[in-house]
Design a protein that fits this description.
610 residues; alpha/beta; Rossmann fold; 3 domains; nine-stranded mixed beta sheet; seven-stranded mixed beta sheet; elongated
């Protein structure tokens, strides 16, 4: 109100050329009083006083202009009423117009002045991290305001690849070229502490390059979540998180033939084994999007099955969901499930997959991975399942451990069974999908490394040269659905896993991303290869080759084919041996069926020597 009063008085001075006599004759006191009174009414109506001054932005400016305009409008209405009765004006219209302009200017600028002094004071009192924002778009501007609202951080510039923006100033801050040379120069000259990525469509290669530059220069790097995950549609400071290692190991988005997958699944009854596991649960999430008639979920893990049930219920999907707490080695239980539901498609993701654990318990690997698969396959044929899709692993190639060999035998069984039935009409089509490690799955090294870093180390790596392929769980499941749709029966599909990654390099990068230094803050300890563990994984053995498909990331492996009658005899022998205490006898039979199985760092190496 003081500023409005002063603005009106200033308008009178300008209108009457600073003549005091003319001011008195025009009764300026009455005009100032009325302008302040109507200003109070306008302020209360528009609530322009409620904005927190140190966070003044464009919306506050709009409210101020609206309030001042309403004040001028009320003054004009009062003028018209007074003129109609007295034939004179309360306030000259020129004073109203000049007052409108000066009030708008002063009210907004005083807020900016307070905001500036508040920011200046914070910079003096607090030691603030100096932040560069990668991406000078709308999201970058929003992020800048969030960063500057914190007493701990301040934005010092933008990085941008768009040549039209480089060199210009955005919101008072300069935009710099996002090149390695420019970044490294600015990191030193400006003293940058952090970089925040706001660009959503940044390629994986560019993101990795940016992270490597920041790690090299000991600059912390963070990112913001997608807009649809902002809390109540607004970005908060606490949502700006460190870059996850999963963001750097994933790959570019996959283009799926969604129409074919939809036609394959829509209206069908789909049974998923291992439905509570990392792969199985993601298959559930993806399959349900294609509107099957019903989903039958089978798993022996009680708590995890309950969790996926709760998650599905929150989707409010019309798809009928039935959950069974069941073991795939329980033939009578599975037979009852198949008899009741008559599924059209089976996704078999249930398996024991931990290498050291299966090396110590070969009977369980045989019981679950081989005999459980046989039970499911036989029931699928008996109940005329259209398609049976088995999830396998790259550890089945040239296996060096019990787990990998058990999965290879499961592959051999379903492929030979498919070929055995191929002459029969309406027989079940058996399809196998083979891929490497998935990020964030149960037993993955990444959650273990994260926990070790949180505990202050050390990080345990088996060998400095050990390498693995990695794929995200959603990507793996998308490819399983695609391969399952394109499979006609008998194929073993392998996925393009990209480049193999050294586990030691992965551990070091995770330490760097946590803002720590490997060897100084977190030790990396090499423990030696575990029983049955390989230095590197393979997707094909030396005698295998591939046939391309219409999908660039999916190939068909050309593998040695086996006689179903011969394989079935072996599987029957496994059934007789599984409860035998002689583990060497079990593993010897596995090696007989899969000659390329050579044990590594295992007590079963004695069988290879014999």
């Amino acid at each position: 109100m003081s500023i409005i009063s002063f603005s009106t008085f200033l308008a009178y001075l300008l209108r009457f050329n600073f003549s005091l006599l003319d001011l008195i004759q025009s009764n300026f006191v009455r005009g100032v009083f009325l302008s302040a009174l109507f200003g109070l009414i306008a302020i209360l109506i528009t609530s322009s006083y409620k904005g927190i001054i140190r966070y003044t932005g464009l919306q506050d400016g709009v409210r101020i202009v609206t309030m001042v305009f309403l004040n001028a409008l009320l003054c004009s209405i009062a003028n018209l009423i007074y003129y109609y009765n007295v034939k004179n004006n309360l306030i000259p219209y020129s004073v109203i117009i000049i007052g409108f302009l000066s009030s708008s200017l002063l009210l907004f600028n005083y807020r900016l002045l307070v905001k500036y002094f508040f920011s200046y004071y914070k910079n003096i009192v607090f030691k603030r991290s100096r932040v560069m924002i990668y991406g000078a778009g709308q999201t970058g501007i929003i992020t800048r305001h969030v960063i500057d609202s914190s007493p701990r951080t301040q934005t010092v510039g933008f990085f941008e690849n768009d040549k039209n923006k480089v060199g210009k100033v955005l919101d008072g801050i300069k935009i710099y070229k996002a090149s390695q040379e420019e970044m490294e120069r600015l990191f030193v000259e400006i003293g940058v502490d952090e970089v925040v990525i706001t660009v959503r469509d940044i390629s994986l290669e560019d993101k990795n390059d940016l992270v490597d530059i920041c790690i090299k220069n000991q600059v912390k790097i963070r990112t913001i979540p997608p807009v649809d995950k902002w809390v109540k549609g607004e970005l908060s400071f606490n949502q700006i998180k460190e870059v996850n290692i999963e963001d750097l190991l994933g790959r570019e988005a996959i283009n799926l033939d969604k129409q074919s997958v939809k036609e394959d699944l829509r209206g069908r009854k789909v049974l998923i084994t291992g439905a509570a596991g990392s792969i199985g649960s993601e298959l559930v999430r993806q399959v349900i999007q294609y509107n099957p008639d019903s989903l039958i979920l089978v798993d022996q893990a009680e708590s995890e099955l309950y969790s996926i049930e709760r998650e599905i219920k929150e989707l409010n999907s019309a798809v009928k969901i039935t959950l069974y707490l069941a073991d795939i080695t329980n033939k009578d239980r599975l037979s009852a499930i198949f008899q009741y539901h008559k599924p059209h498609i089976v996704y078999h993701a249930a398996a024991y997959k931990h290498v050291p654990m299966m090396e110590s318990n070969p009977s369980e690997a045989i019981l679950c991975n081989i005999l459980g698969t046989k039970i499911l396959a036989d029931l699928s044929v008996l109940h005329r399942v259209i398609k049976f899709v088995m999830v396998s692993t790259d550890k089945a190639v040239n296996p060096t451990n019990v787990m990998g060999c058990s999965k290879r035998i499961a592959e051999i069984y379903v492929q030979s069974y498919n070929n055995h039935l191929s002459s029969a009409s309406n027989s079940t089509a058996f399809v196998t999908t083979r891929f490497g490690n998935v990020l964030g799955s149960n037993g993955s090294v990444i959650p273990m490394f994260k926990k070790q870093i949180q505990n202050g180390g050390p990080i345990t790596v088996t060998h400095p040269e050990v390498t693995r392929y990695f794929m995200t769980i959603p990507e793996a499941c998308q490819l399983v659905l695609e391969a399952g749709t394109m499979g006609k029966g008998g194929e073993i599909f392998i996925f393009d896993m990209g480049k193999a990654i050294k586990i030691a390099d992965l551990a070091k990068k995770m330490v760097h991303l946590s803002g720590l230094e490997p060897g100084r803050d977190i030790e990396i300890v090499y423990t030696g290869l575990r029983e049955g563990e390989k230095l590197y994984e393979e997707l094909l053995n030396k005698s295998e080759s591939t046939i391309p498909t219409h999908h660039s990331k999916i190939m068909i492996a050309q593998v040695k084919e086996h006689s179903y009658d011969e394989v079935n005899k072996y599987v029957d022998l496994f059934n007789d041996l599984v409860y035998d205490k002689n583990e060497l006898k079990m593993v010897a039979l596995m090696k007989e069926l899969v000659p390329e199985y050579k044990s590594s760092y295992s007590r079963y190496e004695v069988l290879d020597k014999d």
